[in-house]
Structure formats: structure tokens, C-alpha cells
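Course assignment 3, question 2. Fill in each field.
Student: A.L.
Task: Predict the tertiary structure for the chain below.
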Amino acid sequence: MKYTELRNRVLQANHDIVTAGLVLLTWGNASAVDRKAGVMAIKPSGVSYETLSAESIPVIALDSGAVVDGAYKPSSDTATHLELYRQFTALGGIVHTHSHYAVCFAQAEQPIPCLGTTHADHFLTEVPVTRRLTTDEIEGEYEKNTGTVIVERFGSGGYDPLHSPGVLVAQHGPFAWGESVEKAVENAVVLEEVARMALHTRLIAPQADAADRNLVERHFFRKHGAGAYYGQG
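Answer field:
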């Protein structure tokens, strides 16, 4: 089997998002990129997680979007993943789900606010929300345009994709990513949990404000960046 390691990692990531409770039915997908080989591997469209195998995972050329190996049709969200990989070159893996709390924020078209240190340990900013797609964008290259509005939101907001490793697509749901597909899974789990925490915090205290910026930066950068000191090195 070609691209064995890449496919196995994508297989594991897709199983992990189910185990983490982020996916019902086939409502989600994970992908990983091999930039040296110029390819991406992603879950096949509509295939149940129970029957998913490494051999069933299609491999896609990053430049053309063509299937270069595999008999199965790739996820319908493939063009979104490709657009993000092309524009955010530090990304190694992407996860898309329809997890409950994150979708609630996406449907409300509200960012997930950074209210405390749990959020700040993984996201330096709020989790932003995109604008709605226009009718022309929906009726045209919908999936590619979904990626385009994500990239647009990060540009207009000045967000660093590795400091803010996730987004809410308005009226749709969350995408999370990382320098590896394993990190993308972790960030997808965190995104859903901080959405749940934010909702419940605002139910308890509707006036709850964003966390102190100094506190947010201290927590984020003790785990990330050149000066990080959390963990065992």
C-alpha cells in the first residue's frame, strides 16, 4: 500500500474524533498532509467509521486536487482542506466535525470567547467565526469557498493559524488544525470543550468578560513558542 504511514495516521485520527465524542454518524473528517510528497490523505466520503480502513483512505495531490491513490471518493469537504493547506503552510493536519457546542456557536454566528486559562492554554484568542457565504459562493465552488472565507477571516482579524488553531464557519461548524493531524485532533477536542465552558459560564454570569490579556498570554506561551516551559521538554 502506498503512503502507508500517512494513511494509518489519518485512519487513527478519524477513529479518535469518534472516540472523543465529536462525531455522530459520518458527520466529520480528518486529514493529514505530506508536504514533501505533495499529497494529502483524507477520510472517504460517507464511509462509516466502523468499516474504515487504511486502504480505503484516498490520497490527493495538493496542487491539482486529483486522487493519486485509492479507489474511494474523498470527503466532500476535500476542497476546504486543500484550500487551508495551500494557504496555511504550517498546517500538518485538519479536523472538521459537527460537534454540538461548537456548532451552536457557529449557528449563532458568535465567536467562542476566551474566558479563562483552559481556553488560553490552547488558543491565544477567541475562536473566530467567519462571515456567511454569499449565494454565489454557495452555488459555485461551495467547499473551496468555505476554505476561502476561513482564510479571509484570519487575514482580516490578524489571527495566526498556529496561535488560533480553529475556526467556526457561520451556520455550519468547526474546523480545527495543527502542525500534525494528532495535534489537530487535540485542538478539535479542546475547541468543543471551551465552547461548552463558555456557554455554561455565560449562563451562570451573562456579564462574564474576556480573560485578562496578561493571563491569557502567560498561559499560552508557557506551552507554546520558543520560551515554553510546560512539560518535560
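Instructor remarks: The mean pLDDT is 95. The radius of gyration is 17 Å.
Grade: pending
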